[in-house]
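CORE FACILITY INTAKE
Project code: CF-77B
Contact: R.S. (postdoc)
Sample description: multi-component assembly, two entities in total
Requested service: structural model of the whole complex
Turnaround: standard
Below are the sequence entries exactly as provided by the requester. Do not edit them.
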Amino acid sequence: MSDRGRPRPPLALVGPATVGVAFLTLPLLAMVLLAPWGDLPSLLASTAVVQALRLSLVTATVSAALCLTVGVPLGWVLSRGTSGATRMLRALVTVPLVLPPVVGGVALLLAYGRTGLVGRQLYAVTGWQIPFTTVAVVLAQTFVALPFMVVTVEGALRAAGPDLEEAASTLGASRWFAFRTVTLPLIGPSIAAGAVLSWARALGEFGATVTFAGNLPGVTQAMPSAVYRAFESDPPAAVALSLVLLAVSVSVLLVFRDRWRAGVSPW
Amino acid sequence: MVNTDSLSIAAHLRRGEFVLDVAVEVAPGETLGVIGPNGAGKTTLLRAVAGLTALDRGRIALGSTVWDDPAQGVFVDPTMRECPVVFQDYRLFPHLSVLDNVAYPHRARGASRAAARDRARHTVERLGLAELSARLPRELSGGQAQRAAMARALTTEPRAILLDEPLSALDPRLLTGPGIEGGSSSSRCWPTSPDRPCSSPTTRSRR
């Protein structure tokens, strides 16, 4: 046998590991097996589904773009700072990673709602409020997705260290020039990985969105909210929508599997 | 040759237990070699001169230009010192070809891509790197990488350059005599070196 001479894994580890695999894959398998494959085309062609899908794609992409423009600079600042304040900042920025999304939604309402901390002024000046608009969907998604971008970029920058930026500075490069011409190209793969992670997280966002933006078809009802709503009225449609999300998730995983590994050490 | 003033260094730096206290003066055309065991502070001194580490006390000046003087509150950013460093690990930009690495300081000073490459090409040829100019740093041997880093440091004709451990990549032939020849199979992992006198670190380190 080809395994001859290799240490055999202990049964005490293999047993629970097998249970883990079964536990994770069985629900997905059930969904694929019990999906209403025959009605799938008509289910997915319904207006509600198309609307939700379009809204999801648009909002998740805008959110990912926001994460990109804010997250990369933030990751850079966190990776180069050494003070206690930086550590505090890092903890603050990563709170949404562990915060229950519903709580995030409540917090967003308290900040940007019509009577919220900032929202009150906004409403007084413009007569416009953020909650229950598509903008709210984007904000909720960005709130939960941004930490993924920041953590990925910061990790890559930390692994890279300041060595090349130092070299660039002794060659006459300003910090901004060095960042643009040396740092940015080298952490490119990690930035891409962070953007895809953020996008996937934004696409799956439910708790904060429902709380802060509501569940209005065509306006704030993205795919996960649509799944939730459909499950009450039309379970087969919910399964069909879920299949679409599963397919998207798996494709993201397949396309970026290697990138994520590369993201750990960009060069 | 451009300026006839000296580089004067009076450096006092404290890093925890470690104290660096050096006073030296380097005249134009002179090469100063700093020798000492590991941990003696050679790299710290070099970083202070380059502007990558600030002095606690003392003064660093090139001619009449003061680079660092804590008492006067003067600190010139490395960007403005025009004193490139050839680091021990070279720190070539891994995503740029040898030519673009050498063109980098010109680009950083605002030259167009074409103009920067023109000037870089000139330096690259002088240091015998012409055939390697399209290569990426990872495709270079240790000695070739050092020469490329040297070219990158020299291409703007700075008034002073700093070399960290410049002899570490010297061709073993120079150290052990002509008996040992690095064959082509070993040339990638074994440092092959500056074989032209003009790229020798000791003759170019101070201009």
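Facility notes:
- Chain B is about 30% helix and 15% strand.
- Chain B has two domains: 7-81, 98-204.
Invoice: internal transfer
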